[in-house]
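We close this part of the discussion by returning to an individual protein. Part of our work consisted of pairing the sequence of a single chain with a tokenised description of its backbone. The amino acid sequence and the backbone structure tokens for this protein are reproduced below.
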Amino acid sequence: MRLLIYNTAMASEDYYQILGISKTASADEIKKAYRKLALQYHPDRNKGKEAEGKFKEVTKAYEVLSDASKRQTYDQFGAAAFEQGGPSGQGAGGPFGGGNPFGGQQGSPFTYTYTTNGGPQAQGFDFGGGGFSDPFEIFEQFFGGGNPFGRAQQRRTTYSLTISFMEAVNGVTKRVELAGKTQTIKIPAGVDNGSRIRFGEYDVVVDVAADKRFKREGYDIVSEQEISYAQAALGDTIEIETVQDRIKIKVPAGTQPETVIRLRGKGVKMIRGSGHGDHYVRIKIVIPKNLSVRQKELLKEFDSSKKQGWF
């Protein structure tokens, strides 16, 4: 049995700085910042010495800033509004009249006891000092479906599995060690970074390694393709690598830098259904650094002709 204990007083902290966002950040920006940090520091995925504390810290900041009323209170009074007695100078109970704007026992620290197996009943939260909800609830919207870390009555052990970019795109079968036993798990095609797979009595969270050739946006793929100045000006047929195969496409004459060509249906297979995303090719025009004398002469002639209005 592994036991994680979170226990900290509500110190005066800069919640915006903790999440790495500005004070004018939108709700979506707050959510994205928390998602990134929570996935990075969750103790089931990060075994670093400071991971537990950082996870608790970013969760506390998110719980305040993601709630409009709590955020307004924080912006006015700071973290002190969530401590026993509220901000100084407001009298007993601070501006909320009861010492605690969200109810509960005064002065209670942020505490939680959590087990990752089906052992003894985990302690609940005692939120007298701030009224925060279960920090694991937020993972429901990130992973889809239920909480990957479980409730006290349906707790599931969570493992992390790293696979390559192409393994995520095409699917793969992996032999992994779960609870001391070597087992075979099938990863379906189309999973993405942070996807959660239910495997028997366990949950497996997928980490997808980056690929230097492709960038993924949902089920779509984005890549860059370099072409020469002549190819851009005159047009050409070039070969493009996609996550499915290599195909030939036509580059129209007069193609400009940063032009994006859409390859319909050449993206990632959708987990639900039979469709695929698209592949977007961003054109990069390579300007030659070393030109021959003749090449320079031709370019000068071309430039001169443009100035005289021949084209």
Observations:
- The chain has a mean pLDDT of 75.
